[in-house]
Design brief:
The chain has two domains: 66 residues; 139 residues, no CATH class. The protein is 38% helix and 13% strand. It is built from seven helices and six strands, in the order ααββααααββαββ. A four-stranded antiparallel β-sheet has the order 3-4-6-5, covered by helices on one side. A hairpin with a 6-residue loop joins β3 and β4.
Length: 214
């Protein structure tokens, strides 16, 4: 990219789908974003345009700059900026599981499956796509929440998804052995490779999950 996007182009970026990164705009706006490396045009019909990782970064930087400062530290790291849908990774204060949240999660999961179809070279939806490999914690948490599993909350047990030092791997912890097994089955069905491990010092069991490549 040689120069920052124009105000009109930034509005297109800011309006992108928060999960899939799909763009809507005029042909000239979309073409300009492609030239600047902020978007790509999918080769298969309907030839939709999507944000590149660079485009996602600009969108996230904008949302972060506009978000009000938090009054107090949150128990879990913020994996997405305020105002953007975020699957619950476990540890958040908010624990609303009402109909509106269920609809949000279902819509986000369907959007992710569509992104897989549009961006995986063979069009398959049973294998994670490039977006998931750059948003590991969020992608794994979405798969778990979309399956109806319960994240840990204030005073409540449930799963917790966290980043690890290993490339393309997240850790999933669940105090209940049966629930940990259910997390493993869910992630495997969603296209992740999963292995169960034991903490050397505590003996606690946990999962290491990575997006499957084939």
């Amino acid at each position: 990219m040689t120069r920052p996007p124009s105000a009109a182009q930034r509005r297109v970026i800011d309006a992108a789908d928060p999960v899939t990164g799909r763009l809507k705009g005029t042909e000239s706006q979309l073409a300009a974003l492609v030239r600047h490396g902020l978007a790509f045009r999918h080769p298969r019909p309907p030839h939709a345009h999507f944000l590149t990782p660079a485009g996602h970064r600009i969108r996230e930087e904008t949302a972060t700059a506009e978000a009000p400062a938090a009054e107090a530290p949150q128990p879990a790291p913020a994996h997405e900026p305020a105002g953007v849908f975020a699957a619950r990774v476990g540890g958040e204060d908010a624990a609303d599981a009402g109909p509106s949240r269920v609809r949000e999660v279902r819509s986000a999961w369907q959007g992710l499956l569509e992104l897989r179809r549009m961006t995986n070279t063979d069009g398959v939806v049973d294998r994670p796509c490039a977006w998931e490999r750059t948003h590991l914690v969020q992608a794994a948490a979405l798969a778990l929440e979309a399956a109806g599993l319960r994240p840990a909350g204030t005073g409540a047990e449930g799963y917790r998804v966290r980043a690890t030092p290993q490339p393309e791997a997240v850790a999933v912890r669940e105090p209940a052995a049966a629930a940990l097994k259910e997390c493993a089955v869910t992630l495997e069905k969603a296209g992740w490779q999963v292995g169960e491990h034991t903490e050397p010092r505590t003996g606690a069991r946990y999962l290491l999950a990575s997006p499957r490549r084939s």
